[in-house]
Amino acid sequence: MSQIADWLCEADQVVAFTGAGISTESGIPDFRSPNGVWATNRQIDFQEFLSSADGRYEYWRQKSLAHRAFHDAQPNIGHRVLVRWEQQGKLRGVITQNIDGLHQLAGNSVVHELHGTARDIACLSCSYRTPADPLVEQFLKTDLVPDCPECGRLLKHATVSFGQSLPEEAFEASVDLARTSDLFFVLGSSLVVYPAAGIPQVAKQSGARLVIINRDETPLDGIADAVIRSSIGETLAAIDRAMSAT
Ligand code: NAD
């Protein structure tokens, strides 16, 4: 821990790349752990959403139930340490695969959402976009998939489904941050979802130290400067304490 705290003291371009694992300590299940979302839900990819009314219903059903869990979730100590590092002028930005909005709720100001946000619903055909809460509650009451009130076409959470392309601006800004980073943290990602998982490799190839904090092994452990297989909240808090003590 003290080695990473020393790296943090030396660094001034710190970047955090986060996945579902940073939010499990806020009570939001990840995808691939034994009690994760895929253990209990069928995955609806973008093609199925577009082509099948049953697929859209199942998508809305899963997302609406998940939304209630999100809704009350609060940032945890891991999120809060990242805010502190930003306030200290260390952390340049957060690149997240998460769709829960907890980094912004905690207070980080530079957050690139690679997979969009579940806090909004957007039309796939026109520019209509609206907070998710009312439409989710409407679906849970009526059991009917809503249509766009502007153009009558398909409404979907403003998240990136499998098979859907990433928001270009967020991806490019993330690659830029990775290129200029001198210390890059991966926090709670299995690093198997591409192209997002390529971003830590860009940071490493550009000369950053790479630190992975993740309970399970990842395919990038072999190129990391440090790997810690432990709780993200406890580990970040311990690094933060060690940094304050130096
Ligand atoms: P993932 O489920 O594939 O991997 C999460 C990793 O975090 C696992 O390897 C697990 O070992 C680790 N982990 C879980 N809790 C941890 C903890 N407390 N401390 C340390 N490690 C912990 O998630 P991913 O890599 O983010 O990729 C899958 C996709 O999941 C993303 O595209 C994201 O959009 C989506 N997702 C997001 C949320 C969210 O927004 N909170 C929740 C579920 C899934």
Helix-strand layout with pairing:
Layout (H helix, E strand, L loop, with lengths): L1 H9 L3 E5 L18 H4 L5 H6 L1 H20 L4 H11 L3 E6 L5 H5 L4 E3 L2 E8 L5 E3 H11 L12 E5 L8 H13 L2 E5 L11 H7 L3 E5 L12 E3 L3 H14 L1
The chain binds nicotinamide-adenine-dinucleotide.
Describe this structure in words.
The model has no long low-confidence stretch (mean pLDDT 94). The two termini are 12 Å apart. This protein has 246 residues and is an alpha/beta fold. It is built from ten helices and nine strands. It has helices at 2-10, 37-40, 46-51, 53-72, 77-87, 102-106, 132-142, 168-180, 199-205, 232-245, and strands at 14-18, 91-96, 111-113, 116-123, 129-131, 155-159, 183-187, 209-213, 226-228. It is elongated. Nicotinamide-adenine-dinucleotide binds at residues 19-21, 23-25, 28, 30-33, 36-37, 97-100, 115, 188-190, 193, 214-216, 231-232.
What's this entry about, in short?
The chain contains 10 helices and 9 strands. With 246 residues, it is of the alpha/beta class. The protein has a 6-stranded parallel β-sheet with strand order 3-2-1-7-8-9, with helices on both faces.
Features:
single chain, 246 residues, alpha/beta, 3-stranded antiparallel beta sheet, 10 helices, 9 strands, binds nicotinamide-adenine-dinucleotide
